[in-house]
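Appendix B. Worked example

We walk through a single record from start to finish. Start with the input: the chain for Calcium uptake protein 1, mitochondrial, Phallusia mammillata, length 480.
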Amino acid sequence: MFYRNVAAVTAACSSFYACSSLSKENKLAKDGCLNCQKPCKQQPVFSGLANLQQVTFCKAVTAAENSNEAPNDELVEADLEDKSPKKTRVGFKDRRFIEYENRIRAYSTPDKIFRYFATYKIVYENGDSETYMTPADFLRSITPGEKQPEKLGLDQFKVRKLSANQIEKGSQLLKEMQKMDSLEEKSIFHALGECGFISFSDYIFLLTVLSTPQRNFEIAFQMFDLNGDGEVDVEEFQQVTNTARSQTSIGMRHRDHKTTGNVVKPFKESKSAITSYFFGEDGSQKLTVKKFIAFQQRLQDDILKLEFNKLDPNESGLIKETKFVRMLLAYSGLGEKKQKAIIKRVKQTYNTEEGESVKGISFEETKAFFHFLKHINDVDVAFDFYHVVGADIDKHTMKQVARTVAKQELSDHTIDVVFTAFDDDGNGTLSNKEFVAVMKRRLMRGLEKPKDTGLFRLVDAAWKCAKETSWMNSKDSADN
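Next comes the structure step. The output line below is what the pipeline stores for this chain.
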């Protein structure tokens, strides 16, 4: 019996070679497995036997003895996504890196975020250099859970030496960029810089555009349109963007860093592609609010397209319903347990036993829903009106609100998926408060959050309080 058990676990060990690399990384034991001789987690299975040393087996071997127990249970339960042969699971080390990068996104200054997620450094003929992001880098910098590529990180870049002529023509680098980011030539990113590159000034500007509602820009344009002709020049537009940026978390945390070269340059001095796009090569043209809002919409659509393409649409251009819901939950702030329950419910409803999607969501359906989210504040008001009169928020109501408030025609399938995700009790009605709160955070992509831990705001508040207290005490002393 003893030798039969040894033979069984020895055979199992050879079929679970992956255990060795995992255990080796975490250095769980000094002794090796009975068969593979790799450092493994110690699990004594024989004890008290005469003339036999304690034998150490890897976790995979122990799991193999019980056919009802899957190896690496924590990995199985940690991943609710559809199982497929091509799926790669996130290991312990990667999870730690992802958590670290999420903290960088949440609390670091724009300068550090840019230097961490940018992947290219262009060296010019005269020896000067500048760091750039690709559109994919920009998307990664604002998307929680997206891991930075290996060997690229803080001040670690791909260095390219290009002449001015090569930069203008794009050269091989342009082809490399287009292949990597799946960008169409009409993409707004190609109008923002050489080869679609994003400089630090462009990065700050794009974050401002993304984190500022359309209505705020319309008001700012009216404020700084001094002659009332509906147009602003380059200097007036600088005031518009400065005002908008000061109201965002990015603007509150940004400080120019001359040592790293990451300085936000005025539009009139930078001679950037953005200035040329809005005001012409010589900067003499005027910018209308209509053109700027169209730019904001194109930017949002391009980023949404990049995000959609990363979800591996099938040959018909459709993504699975679970992936669409993951897009909605990306910035939700909901707990991990709550998110897993939502994904599991959607997966059980729309996936077959083989893991294939029943129907899928197209990019046009996704874009229509995100255009609907642009009006989420008005949608919230409309939902409140329905509650006042005692009406429930059902699928027909959402379709009607989308049509009348946001001027968007949502497909029945999209609405079904949304209700499956957010209708917790399955009664066919929506808990609009939680839904609206999640959608507001999704619309802002987490950029509305203050980029600090609260310490600086606490110190600032304490300082103001101390000054006011000191002033009141001095006033009381003077009165006495």
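Two observations about the output. Confidence is low (pLDDT under 50) at residues 1-85, 451-458. The radius of gyration is 28 Å.
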